[in-house]
Amino acid sequence: MDTGGFEPFQTEAALKTSRPTVAKKAAKAMDTSKIWYWNGTVWIDTGLSEFDKAVSKAQELDDEVIIAASAEADQKAATAVINANKYTDNRVGTAVSSRIIPLAVDAEGYIPVWLEEGALDFADSVVIGKASSGSLVPMAVDRDGNIPVWIKDGKLGFAGLSDEAVELLNRRYLQTKYLTSVVSLRPIVSDGTSLFQWKAKAAKIKTGAAQQLRVAITGDSWTEHSVITGELIKLLRAEYGEAGSGWINLGAERNMLDGITITYSSGWTINDMDNGAAAFPYGCGPDGFTRTSSTAGSKITLGNLSKGNKLSVFFGNTGGVFSYSVNGSAETEVTADAAQRLMINLSGTSSVVLTVKSGEICFWGMHMRKTTGAGVEVNKLGNGNCTGRDYLKISPGAQANLSEFIGADVVIIMLGTNDYRRGHSTADFANGIARIINGYRSASPGCACIVVAPAQSSVATPPIPLVDFTEMVFLLAPQIRAEYYNMYDDWAGFESENAQGQWNDNLHVSQAGAYRLAKKIYKSFLEL
C-alpha cells in the first residue's frame, strides 16, 4: 500500500475525526488519496495529493492567462476566483467542473452560495435538511450559515421579524402590539358559531313556532343603565316579538325597563357587591343587589307591570314573613324559606306591594315573564361601578341559583371600563367573566356568551391600559367558548368619537352610541 511515508487512514472521515497526540503530523486518506496536515488543532488539506496536483496543473494555463491579462486591481479578483475554485473543491467534495458555478465570493476567497447542476446550494445546507429534501430553497444566508428567508414547496418562509420591524409595522398600522398578527390587526367580531342554540330557537320563531328566546346582559353600569339594553330590546322585539320585561333590579339608581316603577318605604338596607364591605349572608341575585329589612311594615311597591303575566319574587332563606298584594287586593302572607321564590299571576297592567310582616326579609330582585306565545325576554343584570374582581364575590353561585329559571340562550358581558381605571388585574377580569358564564351554564349548557371589549373611554393616567383588557378578551374567549365584539378597535379614540356625539360622559356612551353598539351586537350575532 503506497502511502508515500504518511500514516494511512482507510477513509477521509476516519482521518478527520482522529486527534493525534503529537503537535504536528501528516497523514493520507486512502479513499480520496488526499494528504492532510495536523497543525496541533485541526486537520488541513495540503492540496499535495496526486489528484490535487492534476487539477492544479489543468488549471495553470487558465490561471496564467487570467493573471497576465488583468491589471493589478483585477489580479486580486482573479486570484480570488482561483482560491474560490479550490475552496469549492474542498467544500463540496469534488473537482471544479461545469456542475458547480460560484455565485458569490467573499474577501477571503470563500464561496457561501453556488449553483450545482442548476440547483441553488450554500455552505452548511445540510443543517436545514437540504441533503434530504429538495423542496426548500434558501434565498439568503448570513455569515454564520443562518437562513433568514427561504422558499419551501413554492411558498415564502422566513425566520421571524426583528423587534424594530414589528414596532415599525405597529406604528404604521395600529400603534399597539398584538402578538397573534404580524401587523397587530385584531379582529372586530368572532364568527358566532357557539350561538347554535340561539339560532335554532330564532329559526323556530321565524317559521311560526311558539318559541321564546332569552337574553341575559350583565357587567358594569353599561348593563345596569337602561340606555344600551333599551336599544337592544327594540331591535330584538322588532325581529322576534316580546316575551316579558325580564329581571327587575333593586339597585339605588332604579334603572327600570318598560316603564316599570319601584318605590321603597323607610327601613330598607341596600347591599351592593361593588361595596368593598359587601356581604351576602342570605345570597343575592345575579346582579349583586339585595334589599334587607327587619322593620315590620317596610314596603316595596312595583308599578306599571304591563309586559308579562307572571311576576316572580326572589328572596333569601331568612325564615321571616312578608305579604304581597296585587292591585290593592287582600294581602297574602309568605314565609321566606328554602323555596327562595314566589310566583304571582298577573292580568293586564298591575301593581304589587310587598310588606315585611315579621322577622328579617332579604329580597334579591323580581322578574316579569310572558308565559305563552313567541318572543324574546331580555334580562338586564348589570351592576354599576363593578369589575371582574367584584363578580368573584358572588359568582358562579348567584348565577347558578337562577340558571334554570332564567334559561339564558345567550349572555352578553360588558366589563373592563372600571377594571382598567380602578387598577383591577386582567387576571381577575378574566376569572370574573369565566365564573359568570359558568354559573349561567350550570343548568343551560348550550348558553352562548358574547364578551364586549369596551371602547376607549376618557380616564387620565389609568393604572392599567384598557388595551390590556382587550387583549385578555382574545385570550379568554376560546377558553370559555365565547364570542367577542372588539369595540375597542371598532371605535376611534375617545376624542374623535366624543366629537361625533357617541359619548354621554367620560365613561358612558350616549343614546346614539348605545344604538350603534346594540346594532353591532344584533347584526353580528343575534340576527338570524
Automatic annotation (TrEMBL):
SGNH hydrolase-type esterase domain boundaries: 383-514
Q: Sorted alphabetically, which SUPFAM superfamilies does this protein's record hold?
A: SGNH hydrolase
List, in alphabetical order, the Gene Ontology terms for molecular function in this entry: hydrolase activity, acting on ester bonds
Q: Which residues form the signal peptide?
A: none
A Pfam family that this protein carries is Lipase_GDSL_2
**UniProt keyword list:** Hydrolase
UniProt-listed InterPro entries: SGNH_hydro, SGNH_hydro_sf
* Record protein name field: SGNH/GDSL hydrolase family protein
Q: What species is this protein from? A: Acinetobacter chinensis
